[in-house]
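Posted in: Protein Modeling Q&A

I'm a second-year student putting together a small comparison for a lab meeting, and my supervisor asked me to include a predicted structure for G protein-coupled receptor 68. I've never done this before, so apologies if this is the wrong subforum. The sequence is pasted below exactly as I got it from our records. If anyone can share the structure token output, I'd also love a short note on what stands out.
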Amino acid sequence: MGNVTENSSLSCPIDHTIHQTLAPVVYVAVLVVGFPANCLSLYFGYLQIKARNELGVYLCNLTVADLFYICSLPFWLQYVLQHDNWSHGDLSCQLCGILLYENIYISVGFLCCISIDRYLAVAHPFRFHQFRTLKAAVGVSALIWAKELLTSVYFLRHQEVVEDDKRHRVCFEHYPLEPWQRGINYYRFLVGFLFPLCLLLASYRGILRAVRRSHGTQKSRKDQIQRLVFSTVVIFLACFLPYHTLLLVRSLWEASCQFARAVFNAYHFALLLTSFNCVADPVLYCFVSESTHRDLGRLRGACLALLACARTGRAREAYPSGTPDASGKSDEPELLTRLHSTFQTPNSPGAGGTPAGGLA
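Accepted answer (user: helix_wrangler)
Welcome! Here is the predicted structure, written out as tokens:
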């Protein structure tokens, strides 16, 4: 059996078994996969900003938010492995809780920005240029961060560490919900989730309509865009819909300890699902784009060329005069040419590629 918590305002024993069984598995998986994937995503976002692509700004902000959340996971992992006993200070509990919960709405906000920007690029490619600039993207990003940071102040005003009957310090857990939590939960559901979801669905509906009406787009390209749109919506709903549905259910009807116990496992399972968004984000908005495929190809080519240089260096140590081929010529000039070409950026003179474009 898991440990039992008792709210300071109302005795409410809760079985926390899910925290000691499923939560560590999810946290470790997200750490192992999400951290390197988001680091790579941050690099590709930088390349897009360098190519004057405003989507790179949204991608980098989305990735930074995910990395902040991932950095808080070791603390939560320690917390659940110690049977829900927060061994750090009260402020660290509040900060880690803010990173855990506010990351959801920062991610939703930037996913919404990406979908709207993509809609404007596909459906109205020659209009709204003032909204599709680096300056505009930086301004919108600053507004999203400011909105969520102001919301976070609300949590800093309340005590989030509660000591149970076993003298365990539980963090960010109140059962049943306290009155002040209901109002902020309604705000989260309506403004943080439902409104962005409507914008995202409307944007992707417009994208699909524009793609289907386009006669100049190849069928393979249309299929790729449609698959990406479908995957984005499915992953968005899978990661965020269960949690917000149960958040609304708790806010509307949780008034007793019995109800809190009944929904505890489902609610925390849904909360764990939101963690997988940190893994899905770089896959959807980085690894499926054509520009990222080119960047991955150049990165792979550069690594292979460096390995080839290392092998050639060892061969030259063994054969100082060089390794001639069948015609008696050394392969060094060809190798240097290949190495130079792999490091060329899309905007470099002589490069055959185009600047990093949209993510769709």
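A couple of things worth pointing out for your meeting: The chain has two domains: 4-288, 297-322+329-342. Residues 297-322+329-342 form one domain.
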